[in-house]
Structures are given as structure tokens and as C-alpha cells.
Amino acid sequence: MAVPYGSSLAGELREDVLDRFLRYARIDTQSARVSDTYPSTPKQLDLSRLLAAELRELGLDDAELTEHGYVFATLPAVGDREGPTVGLLAHVDTSPDAPGTGVEPRVWRDYDGGEIVLPGDPSQVLSPSTSPLLAGRVGHDIVTSDGTTLLGADDKAGVAEIMAAVAWLVGHPEVPRARGRIGFTVDEEVGRGTDHFDLARFGADFAYTLDGALVGEIENETFSAIELKVTFTGVGVHPGVAKGKLVNPVKLAARFIERLPRDTLSPETTEGREGFIHPYEIAGGAGGVTVTTILRDHDAEKLEEHHALARRLAEEVVADESGAAVSFSRWDQYRNIGEKLDEVPHVVAAAEEATRRVGLEPALAAIRGGTDGSRLTERGLPTPNLFTGGNEYHSVREWISVEDMAISAATAVELLKLFAQ
Questions:
Q1: What is the pLDDT at residue 131?
Q2: pTM here?
Q3: Domain finish residue from 270, 298, 330
Q4: How far is it, in rounded angstroms, from Cα 102 to Cα 80?
Q5: β strands within 186-335, DSSP E
Q6: Within this chain, do residues 240 and 173 fall inside the same structural domain, yes or no?
Q7: What distance in Å separates the CA atoms of residue 392 and residue 398, rounded to the nearest whole number?
Q8: Which end of the chain is more exposed for a tag (fewer CB within 10 A), N or C?
């Protein structure tokens, strides 16, 4: 068997991380955007309970499932040097954007560089022409779903990688390591992963989420994010006698969406550090219609400009329509982690060094999204985001390389070793 990326440590971790990932991926842990409970779906706790039990089996006796569904555990330090306490975090829930029940992972051994036709839905085809990273994974083992569900690599790859790293370190007590605090969260995909996260109880000096994608990439910036609900109301009347009276909130909402920028400030027309206004849900009827939008930008001032633009366009829709009204509900979801990480450069520098130690060239990146680390960093726990190897998240075409998972797990090992030196 070839050693991935020239890392013998990754080679040692390879089968364990794959076995764990396949086991976790089969557990349905989808979160829900609309829910009166925390976590938003009780089935997330099925995996949380399993992880707490597995951590205790590894000897982490303080492993606990908190009242809010988080899993916390301590990996004791080994060595003479008293270093910092380093947090490793991943989330157990999967996205509600694609089917997540009945996940059946498929392992495609020794990928040959061609197309992969997913057996559950042959119309779903993975190809280097549409997923360019596949071309660089010839010879790797590729994991997919059957094409009818998401795979769940976001973020069960991160979960499996942390667990494999912990298991390796426990099995090598001769290797010096920093004290580690392990944390698995819920409801990250619906923006509420840290709503009840107790920083003092977790007790880390800083942390790393394993929730990124391309191996070697360390995300030291995220979007800043606002959810804006725009609700239109009008004048209701029986359509048979509506002439000159009816003001239809469905049409008001449609006019608002039509006014939003098309060639800029939308996800389908932006990249890199360009922000956007994205309507992603419409709900309601004759009594009122709510358009839920998400506003994103790396720059806080520009984000406020997007917010002002969305409000202005909505207000213009109702300005000349007697009986029409609009109201707004704003939720500040998270902030760009770069605003705080600049104050603790050693945290990112350590991630870069750990990446080099497994044979990769690190690259800093600004993610077009957010992580649990976005809110944790804002609250005072510096938390950059590390790679896991996942691709095409939130879709039935999601895939990941086993070798990429192994090198990611090896990087987590090297981080804890690094802070003991």
C-alpha cells in the first residue's frame, strides 16, 4: 500500500479513520432549521452518545454528554513541559439541504481517474470535469453515498479524524503531547452549534475546528453573517370582488426578489472575498409572505451595506402600494474569525507547522461560509478551521478521499505533539 503524501503517520491512521467514518456516516444526524428543541433533532444524540462511549473506552474517563447534547472529554498531557490546553472540535449534525436518512457509504478502491456513477441514482455522476479535485486523487480510495443521500463528510469526517487521532495518541503513551480537550457539537448546520457552549466548562486556551475541505488549507477567515427575514403584508379580500382592493403579499415578495442584484451580490455570481444577498426560503400566503435571506461578507462594513440595500429594495416595493407593509427581523449569526485571530498569531502558525510536519504545504484561506469557530472566536476562544478533505458538501454528490482523511487526522496528532515541545 502506498503511503499517502509521504506520511507514515497518515498510513497508520488510514484504516481506523475509514472504519470510524463509515460507522458514523450511517447514523442519521440531520439538524432542522425549524425546531422548538435543542438540539433541533433528537437523532443527533444517537451519534453523540456513541462518541462519548467510545471516548470512555479509549480511557478518557471524564467523557460526558452534556445536557445540551455536546460531548466533552479530556486527553491528558504527556511529558514534562506544561503547555496549553488545545481544543479539537467537530460537529455531529449533517445538513438539511439534501436527504440524510439511510446513508449507505460506498468505497471506490484505487480510483482510476474516470467517472464514478453513483449506484442509487445513475444520473448522479462524479467526474474530474465537474469536480476537478478528483483528478488529483488517482490511486486514492474514494468514499461516496449511493447518490440518493448526502454522505455526511461535513462533518463526520472531522469527527472521525479527531477520534482516530485520539486513539493513536492513547495507543502511543511514549509520545509527548499537550493536554487536549475534545468537543463534538450539535446544530452547527443550522447556525446554532454554540448556542449553549460553555467556554469555561470546555476549558481550552484555544481550539481548532476540523470542518474544512481541501487538505493543506487552514481557514483563518470566515464570512460575517446576517439572516434577514423580510415579511410583506397586504390587504386581503375575496378574489371575486378584489378589483381595486386586493394587495397580494405573494406578488410583493416576488417584486422584492426580482429587484435583488443578478449580476453581482448573489452566490451564483460571486467568488473569493465578494459578498452576497441570497434569498433561500419563501413561506406564507394571503395573510403575509416572509422571504428569508442570508447576507454574507468578509468585511463588516460591506455586510452592513448589503443589509441596508436589502431593506431599501423591500421598502421601495411597498412605498407606492396603499395597504402594503413590510417588516424585518435580523439575526446576527456570526463574525469573521480573522478579526480576532490576528491578535493570537501563534494559533494559526502552529496549524501551519503541523501541516508541514505531515508533508503538506499549508495555505491560508478565507472561507465563504462559517463554522462553530466563528462564534467561539467572537466569544473569546480563538478557533481557526482545519481541513478534513471533504468535497461537494450539502449534496448527494458529496465525496471524500480516505487518504485525505488520514492526512487530516495526522495533522491533529501533530498539533498536540507540537504544543508539548
A1: 87
A2: 0.90
A3: 330
A4: 48
A5: 206-210, 217-221, 224-233, 276-285, 288-297, 325-334
A6: no
A7: 5
A8: N
Residues annotated as part of the active site: 93, 188
| Pair (22, 112) in one structural domain | yes
Q: What is the CATH number of the domain that holds 202?
A: 3.40.630.10
The answer to whether 219 and 365 have CB atoms below 8 angstroms apart is yes
* Host H or E run for residue 16: helix 8-25
Cell (9 digits) for 162: 479527531
What is the count of structural domains for the chain? 2
d(CA 229, CA 80): 54
What's the confidence (pLDDT) of residue 3? 45
DSSP string, 347-387: HHHHHHHHHHHTT---EEEE-SS--HHHHHHHHT----EE-
Residues in the chain: 421
The pLDDT tens digits for 229-278 are: 999 999 999 999 999 999 999 999 999 999 999 999 999 999 999 999 99
Q: Could you tell me if 132 and 275 lie in one domain? A: no
Alpha-carbon distance of 174 to 194, in angstroms, equals 35
Could you say which of 296, 330, 364 is where a domain stops?
Answer: 330
Closest CA to 214 of 350, 110, 355: 355
Give residue 247's domain range: 231-330
Burial class (CB in 10 A: 0-12, 13-18, 19+), 287: exposed
Confidence band for 82, pLDDT divided at 50, 70 and 90: confident
Q: Does one domain contain both 392 and 249?
A: no
